[in-house]
Automatic annotation (TrEMBL):
CDD domains: SURF1. This is SURF1-like protein. GO terms for cellular component: plasma membrane. It is a multi-pass membrane protein. PROSITE patterns: SURF1.
């Protein structure tokens, strides 16, 4: 009899824990759905705004992510940087970032993500970025709050690999390769007064690919997962009730 009670108690405990954990997973998926819905709303709100002409005096409040924007100025090709490990449809490659000088006297500029170019064969040197137009050029695209980050792996063999040089440009005309690029560090290395936003270029007459990644906004998927977790939690709860009901019936039944 005592063995049966212990087994019943253990079953009720496990089923109760399972129901609670499964229900919490369902609630977590609903929160993820809300987060993705908020991201989608922010993207749609940004893209619905009128195009913004970037100038050195553009207020930071106007630099809304995903807002259409354009800038006119001179390319500072000597400050170009390659962002490594950016894939495009499964192909490894780089993003090319180059500042566009908006006002020469105060060295104000906006950092432009110009596009993607493929990596060469293993052991091959990095690709040569396409030349920028001479003189004043107009660039159109969408704004981003920062350069999208990539998970960084620490390399014990070369601690400087993937890091931004302290000063740009690099001697010899070498285009630095970095994993991630922070605007503050880039501004310090170049001496430029950068706008607190990045322009993701959407058009151009070169061979760069400009298919920029967008955050996942499929909240319906999370809602489907939530429904599954809640269903499993309901099954565990029903099983808990069934075990408890049988245990009560056994206790209330007269002994034979």
């Amino acid at each position: 009899m005592a063995h049966s009670v212990r087994r019943t108690f253990a079953a009720l405990l496990l089923l109760g824990v399972a129901a609670a954990v499964l229900a919490s997973l369902g609630a977590w998926q609903l929160r993820r759905a809300d987060e993705r819905r908020a991201v989608l709303a922010a993207i749609e709100a940004g893209r619905a705004q009128p195009p913004l002409a970037l100038t050195p005096s553009t207020p930071a409040a106007e630099l809304t992510p995903w807002r259409p924007a354009q800038a006119s100025g001179q390319w500072l090709d000597q400050y170009s940087v390659l962002l490594d490990n950016r894939n495009q449809e499964g192909r490894p490659g780089y993003w090319l970032a180059t500042p566009l000088l908006l006002d020469p006297p105060d060295r104000s500029a906006v950092l432009v993500l110009r596009g993607w170019l493929p990596r060469g064969a293993p052991g091959a040197p990095p690709p040569t970025p396409p030349a920028v137009p001479a003189g004043t050029d107009t660039v159109v695209g969408e704004l981003a709050a920062r350069v999208p980050r990539l998970f960084e792996l620490w390399s014990p063999g070369d601690s400087s690999r993937g890091q931004l040089p302290a000063t740009l440009p690099v001697a010899g005309g070498v285009v630095p390769q970095v994993q991630n690029l922070e605007l503050l560090a880039y501004a310090q290395a170049t001496g430029l007064a950068l706008l607190p936003a990045v322009l993701m270029q959407s058009g151009g007459g070169d061979a760069l690919v400009r298919d920029w990644p967008q955050p996942s906004v499929d909240y319906n998927q999370n809602q489907g997962y939530a429904l599954q977790w809640f269903s499993f939690a309901a099954i565990a709860a029903i099983a808990w009730l069934a075990v408890a009901w049988r245990a009560l019936r056994r206790r209330s039944s007269p002994a034979h």
